[in-house]
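My current task is to audit a protein record that another person submitted. My question to you is simply how this chain folds and whether the tokens agree. This is what I was given:
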Amino acid sequence: MKYTEHLRAVTVAELERQTAAQITKMQDDYDARIRQLQAKVDDKLVQLEDKINALNELLTFTKDNATNKTDNSNKLYTEINEVKKQLNELQKIWKC
């Protein structure tokens, strides 16, 4: 009976050790994935911000040089609004 109890205790201890090791590995993997996702989202946000700034500069230049035709200006406004929407969506996703 004592031997059986000893084997049970050893088995339980080994299972607890293995489970703790697996949980630690899963947590490390999860943390690494989160860091990768964060880096990708941060890069995407920087790219979108750069694009917005470039579009704003182009829009300002276009407005300064505009004639009676506002077609180019409208296209630029539309594109800027689309980029801003994408940026807002990424920011919402990241905050969740």
In short: The chain has one domain: 2-95. The radius of gyration is 28 Å.
